[in-house]
Design brief:
Distance between the termini of chain B: 13 Å
Number of helices of chain B: 6
CATH superfamily of the largest domain in chain B: UreE, C-terminal domain
Shape of chain B: elongated
Oligomer: heterodimer
Number of helices of chain A: 18
Number of domains of chain A: 1
Largest interface: A-B, 10 and 12 residues
Strand content of chain B: 15-25%
Radius of gyration of chain A: 22 Å
Radius of gyration of chain B: 25 Å
Number of strands of chain B: 6
CATH class of the largest domain in chain B: Alpha Beta
Shape of chain A: globular
Helix content of chain A: over 70%
Distance between the termini of chain A: 26 Å
CATH architecture of the largest domain in chain B: 2-Layer Sandwich
Chain lengths: 414, 196
């Protein structure tokens, strides 16, 4: 029996993806007409905040796939080989979303959206001692260089990892020595990616892109927290594509055992996310210093408390209770439902990270502007990711059949 | 506690034991247990053992711990002995989360270990009869329980035909007792009373 090696994008799949992108573009246009084109800074900020939230969130989510590949490669793990082409295809979207995201971020910084990035207002910073102290880090030049460099490095190193994986498709390695060399080469490049990843998402980039929205406030936990958020959503995205391909008769070798392990990642990193979320919250709550609690005031108690506690429910209690049993992690329905829920939950998480500060007006009142347009913009990005991942999946065989570790994955059993 | 009669087959290779287990089950014999020097992946499945319920027990112990911690701290700090910590409300849940978490883990861990010991009948001074001491070293032992209808010769022949190196009929105590291996020999005297 021959296996279905190559994914053929179903027509309906592309139709859905393209219509979602059209919805996204319409939502962006609608948002621009209703707020972005207005003269006052707060209306404009509302438009740009929505773009910022969605582009950064979806960029970090698709990029988490490459982190997953590199982390498992670095650990010399073999179990993921049966479905590794799926995260590879997802990470192939990084350059596309990355360019969009970088464009939006630079437009906000250089376009004078001071309601979002206070620190980009050089006139204001001169009279603001706190921001003056942070100027070495929070300035337009550094922001631009870091953003562009990050997107380029992620794209290039990710491309190298994918290229290494595909180089074996037509020419199997013959000797043990060759295989050792191949694994070592993979390890070195994966290590390079991990270092870049550690210096960006895990430590400094969320400070620049997201935390600097609340420029006076800071939390050392913030980047880890963002990483946990996007990594669990990234695993959920991988799970969704694996289930989709299985349901369409592809990925014969990815079994319930593999799905079980992806489910474990979704479960474990939901708990990990909560751990970081709570660690950040509890220290600030306990110390009760006004300059720190200012961050949680509108979120935990104020206008955003509904979203804040809803996303806590979705991101912690739901995965904890629903994904706990072995049966749930092996059930396509449960995994699909939980994956969608987790992706939505962390999207809400990003919403409450980005919006409260730009949406606070001169009188100190915080607004929650969430309307259908926000979901429309998110759906646009979902459509873009769907379309691009489908294209990337169809370009290479779904099984990396010549990889030295492939047998380990085929007989994998938890 | 009861002394029972068994047909005990000794295998010297895992690769022989595994298909043997399947053949024995297919032939309709009842496997009492299989003893191996090391864990063998999938053997439990081949023997038809059900999944353990230890996780369910663990979950119940865990939520017992959560409930204990939250209810006790709530009672202690809001009803019994109210203390003012830096102007925080008496009912300040965030501060209690770490302790709640720890107690959840503690209850689940200790409870599961004790349950595991109980299920395996492991405790200090508890002794059990061995089918073959070498099952801790290099021999794979499969024990089939006999009933009064069992034709031992036929079973022995069957086990030998599927690769057992050494097969014998033996009386063994299936329960546990408190005592010492070197002094306690009572179990050997009761062979005549073996339950069929």
């Amino acid at each position: 029996m021959s296996i279905r090696e190559n994914f053929v994008v179903p027509k309906r799949y592309n139709t859905i993806a393209i219509s979602l992108m059209v919805v996204g573009i319409l939502a962006i246009v609608g948002l621009y007409v209703t707020s972005g084109s207005k003269d006052d800074a707060h209306h404009q900020a509302r438009f740009w905040a929505s773009l910022l939230q969605n582009s950064v969130y979806f960029l970090l989510v698709v990029n988490a796939s490459m982190f997953f590949i590199c982390a498992t490669t670095l650990a010399w793990g073999g179990w993921q080989m049966a479905f590794r082409r799926v995260p590879e295809a997802i990470s192939a979207v990084v350059p596309v979303v990355g360019v969009i995201c970088a464009a939006i971020l630079l437009a906000i910084t250089f376009g004078g959206q001071h309601a979002i990035y206070h620190w980009s207002d050089t006139e204001h910073v001169k009279h603001d001692p706190t921001l003056l102290h942070k100027e070495g880090f929070l300035n337009k030049g550094f922001f631009a260089v870091a953003t562009v460099l990050t997107v380029v490095l992620w794209s290039v190193l990710g491309w190298k990892m994918r290229q290494l994986s595909r180089s074996l498709d037509n020419e199997p390695l013959k000797t043990v020595e060759e295989r050792r060399k191949y694994i070592w080469k993979n390890t070195v490049w994966a290590a390079g990616y991990i270092v870049v990843f550690a210096l960006t998402v895990m430590s400094s980039l969320p400070w620049l892109w997201l935390m600097s929205i609340d420029a006076h406030w800071y939390s050392t936990m913030y980047s880890w927290y963002t990483f946990a958020s996007t990594f669990v959503a990234g695993m959920a995205l991988i799970a969704l594509f694996v289930v989709f391909l299985k349901n369409n008769g592809y990925l014969e070798y990815a079994t319930n055992e593999h799905l079980h392990d992806i489910g474990k990642f979704m479960f474990a990193f939901s708990v990990f996310w909560t751990y970081l979320w709570f660690s950040q919250f509890m220290l600030i709550w306990y110390a009760n210093i006004p300059e720190e609690t200012v961050y949680f005031k509108p979120r935990a108690e104020g206008a955003y408390s509904g979203i804040f506690w809803l996303m806590f429910l979705i991101n912690f209690l739901a995965p904890l209770l629903i994904l706990m049993t072995r049966g749930a992690k092996r059930n396509y329905g449960t995994i699909t439902f939980m994956a969608l829920l987790i992706i939505f939950g962390h999207w809400l998480d990003f919403y409450q990270m980005v919006f409260p500060s730009p949406m606070t007006d001169e009188k100190g009142v915080t607004h929650v502007p969430m309307i259908l347009y926000d979901f429309g913009v998110a759906l646009g990005f979902v459509g873009l990711i769907m379309f691009a991942v489908g294209r990337a999946l169809s370009k290479a065989p779904l099984l990396a059949k010549n990889h030295p570790f492939i047998k380990e994955s085929l007989i994998h059993h938890t | 506690m009861a002394v029972k009669k068994f047909v005990v087959g000794n295998f010297d290779d895992e690769a022989v034991l595994f298909p043997a287990v399947k053949k024995v089950r297919r032939a309709g014999y009842k496997i009492h247990d299989v003893f191996t020097p090391f864990p063998i992946h999938g053997l439990d499945h081949a023997m038809g053992l059900r999944d353990t319920s230890l996780h369910t027990a663990g979950f119940i112990y865990g939520i017992t711990g959560t409930t204990t911690a939250v209810s006790f701290i709530t009672w202690a700090l809001t009803v019994d002995w109210q203390l003012n910590f830096g102007g925080k409300p008496f009912f300040s849940l965030p501060a209690w989360i770490p302790i709640t978490f720890e107690l959840t883990v503690l209850f689940a861990a200790v409870g599961m270990v004790l349950t595991f010991c109980y299920l395996c009948q492991l405790a200090p001074f508890v002794k059990k009869d061995h089918f073959n001491p070498r099952s801790t070293d290099d021999t794979f032992v499969m024990a089939l329980e006999c009933t009064d209808k069992t034709n031992e010769a036929e079973v022995i022949g069957f086990l030998e035909s599927i690769g057992a190196k050494e097969v014998k009929v033996d009386y063994k105590e299936t329960g546990w007792w408190l005592g010492r291996y070197d002094k306690d020999t009572k179990r050997f005297e009761k062979k005549a009373e073996a339950v069929h």
